[in-house]
Design brief:
This protein is mostly helical. The protein has helices at about 5-20, 25-75, 85-115, 120-140.
Length: about 140
Protein backbone atom coordinates (compact mmCIF):
# COMPACT_ATOMS: atom_id res chain seq x y z
CA UNK A 1 0.00 0.00 0.00
CA UNK A 2 1.28 3.46 -0.78
CA UNK A 3 2.51 5.63 2.01
CA UNK A 4 1.28 9.13 2.63
CA UNK A 5 4.14 10.77 0.71
CA UNK A 6 3.28 8.79 -2.43
CA UNK A 7 -0.37 9.81 -2.17
CA UNK A 8 0.54 13.46 -1.65
CA UNK A 9 2.96 13.43 -4.59
CA UNK A 10 0.25 11.86 -6.76
CA UNK A 11 -2.22 14.57 -5.75
CA UNK A 12 0.41 17.26 -6.37
CA UNK A 13 1.02 15.85 -9.83
CA UNK A 14 -2.68 15.98 -10.63
CA UNK A 15 -3.02 19.55 -9.31
CA UNK A 16 0.02 20.71 -11.26
CA UNK A 17 -1.39 19.24 -14.44
CA UNK A 18 -4.67 21.04 -13.72
CA UNK A 19 -2.80 24.34 -13.76
CA UNK A 20 -1.24 23.60 -17.13
CA UNK A 21 -3.84 21.44 -18.84
CA UNK A 22 -7.38 20.53 -19.43
CA UNK A 23 -9.71 19.92 -16.47
CA UNK A 24 -10.99 16.73 -18.11
CA UNK A 25 -7.44 15.40 -18.17
CA UNK A 26 -7.24 16.06 -14.44
CA UNK A 27 -10.46 14.15 -13.83
CA UNK A 28 -9.30 11.27 -16.02
CA UNK A 29 -5.95 11.08 -14.24
CA UNK A 30 -7.64 11.29 -10.84
CA UNK A 31 -10.06 8.52 -11.75
CA UNK A 32 -7.23 6.38 -13.12
CA UNK A 33 -5.14 6.93 -9.99
CA UNK A 34 -8.10 6.09 -7.73
CA UNK A 35 -8.85 2.90 -9.69
CA UNK A 36 -5.23 1.80 -9.51
CA UNK A 37 -5.05 2.49 -5.78
CA UNK A 38 -8.31 0.59 -5.21
CA UNK A 39 -7.05 -2.39 -7.22
CA UNK A 40 -3.75 -2.50 -5.34
CA UNK A 41 -5.56 -2.26 -2.00
CA UNK A 42 -7.81 -5.16 -2.97
CA UNK A 43 -4.78 -7.23 -4.01
CA UNK A 44 -3.02 -6.50 -0.70
CA UNK A 45 -6.18 -7.42 1.18
CA UNK A 46 -6.36 -10.77 -0.62
CA UNK A 47 -2.70 -11.48 0.19
CA UNK A 48 -3.32 -10.63 3.85
CA UNK A 49 -6.40 -12.86 3.94
CA UNK A 50 -4.44 -15.80 2.52
CA UNK A 51 -1.61 -15.19 5.00
CA UNK A 52 -4.10 -15.36 7.86
CA UNK A 53 -5.47 -18.64 6.48
CA UNK A 54 -1.91 -19.94 6.27
CA UNK A 55 -1.18 -19.00 9.88
CA UNK A 56 -4.41 -20.70 10.97
CA UNK A 57 -3.44 -23.87 9.12
CA UNK A 58 0.04 -23.86 10.65
CA UNK A 59 -1.48 -23.43 14.12
CA UNK A 60 -3.81 -26.38 13.52
CA UNK A 61 -0.86 -28.42 12.25
CA UNK A 62 1.10 -27.66 15.42
CA UNK A 63 -1.85 -28.75 17.55
CA UNK A 64 -2.23 -31.97 15.54
CA UNK A 65 1.47 -32.79 16.04
CA UNK A 66 1.07 -32.06 19.73
CA UNK A 67 -1.95 -34.36 20.00
CA UNK A 68 -0.13 -37.12 18.13
CA UNK A 69 2.90 -36.71 20.39
CA UNK A 70 0.78 -37.01 23.53
CA UNK A 71 -0.80 -40.19 22.17
CA UNK A 72 2.61 -41.66 21.35
CA UNK A 73 3.90 -40.79 24.80
CA UNK A 74 0.88 -42.49 26.34
CA UNK A 75 1.75 -45.58 24.31
CA UNK A 76 5.34 -45.36 25.54
CA UNK A 77 4.06 -45.33 29.12
CA UNK A 78 2.11 -48.49 28.37
CA UNK A 79 -1.31 -46.91 28.49
CA UNK A 80 -4.09 -48.28 26.32
CA UNK A 81 -4.26 -46.57 22.94
CA UNK A 82 -7.30 -45.42 21.05
CA UNK A 83 -6.44 -46.36 17.45
CA UNK A 84 -9.13 -44.03 16.12
CA UNK A 85 -7.56 -41.08 17.95
CA UNK A 86 -4.14 -41.89 16.47
CA UNK A 87 -5.57 -42.25 12.97
CA UNK A 88 -7.52 -39.01 13.40
CA UNK A 89 -4.38 -37.17 14.51
CA UNK A 90 -2.42 -38.53 11.53
CA UNK A 91 -5.17 -37.50 9.11
CA UNK A 92 -5.31 -34.01 10.63
CA UNK A 93 -1.52 -33.68 10.28
CA UNK A 94 -1.68 -34.70 6.62
CA UNK A 95 -4.65 -32.41 5.93
CA UNK A 96 -3.05 -29.36 7.53
CA UNK A 97 0.35 -30.00 5.89
CA UNK A 98 -1.31 -30.16 2.48
CA UNK A 99 -3.44 -27.10 3.18
CA UNK A 100 -0.44 -25.10 4.42
CA UNK A 101 1.60 -26.04 1.34
CA UNK A 102 -1.22 -24.98 -1.00
CA UNK A 103 -1.79 -21.71 0.84
CA UNK A 104 1.94 -21.00 0.86
CA UNK A 105 2.00 -21.38 -2.93
CA UNK A 106 -1.10 -19.18 -3.31
CA UNK A 107 0.47 -16.44 -1.20
CA UNK A 108 3.67 -16.61 -3.25
CA UNK A 109 1.73 -16.40 -6.53
CA UNK A 110 -0.39 -13.49 -5.29
CA UNK A 111 2.72 -11.65 -4.07
CA UNK A 112 4.46 -12.20 -7.40
CA UNK A 113 1.48 -10.92 -9.37
CA UNK A 114 1.16 -7.92 -7.06
CA UNK A 115 4.84 -6.99 -7.32
CA UNK A 116 4.80 -7.28 -11.12
CA UNK A 117 2.32 -4.40 -11.23
CA UNK A 118 4.48 -2.13 -9.10
CA UNK A 119 7.19 0.27 -10.10
CA UNK A 120 10.72 -0.63 -9.02
CA UNK A 121 10.53 1.87 -6.17
CA UNK A 122 7.18 0.55 -4.99
CA UNK A 123 8.44 -3.04 -5.24
CA UNK A 124 11.44 -2.24 -3.03
CA UNK A 125 9.18 -0.48 -0.53
CA UNK A 126 6.79 -3.46 -0.54
CA UNK A 127 9.66 -5.90 0.01
CA UNK A 128 10.89 -3.88 3.01
CA UNK A 129 7.39 -3.79 4.46
CA UNK A 130 6.92 -7.54 3.95
CA UNK A 131 10.25 -8.25 5.65
CA UNK A 132 9.28 -6.06 8.59
CA UNK A 133 5.91 -7.84 8.90
CA UNK A 134 7.60 -11.26 8.82
CA UNK A 135 10.08 -10.22 11.51
CA UNK A 136 7.21 -8.95 13.66
CA UNK A 137 5.32 -12.23 13.17
CA UNK A 138 8.42 -14.25 14.11
CA UNK A 139 8.94 -12.14 17.23
CA UNK A 140 5.30 -12.67 18.21
CA UNK A 141 5.60 -16.42 17.65
CA UNK A 142 8.65 -16.60 19.91
CA UNK A 143 6.84 -14.85 22.77
Amino acid sequence: MKNLNDVISGVDEVLNSAKHGNFEDVLTKTKSYAERATKKSAERLEISRKKIELLDSRTKLTKAYEKYGRLQYSAYLGEELDEEAIESALQEIQLQKTRAELLDKEVAELREAFVEGLSKREARQYARQEKKEEETAEDSAQD
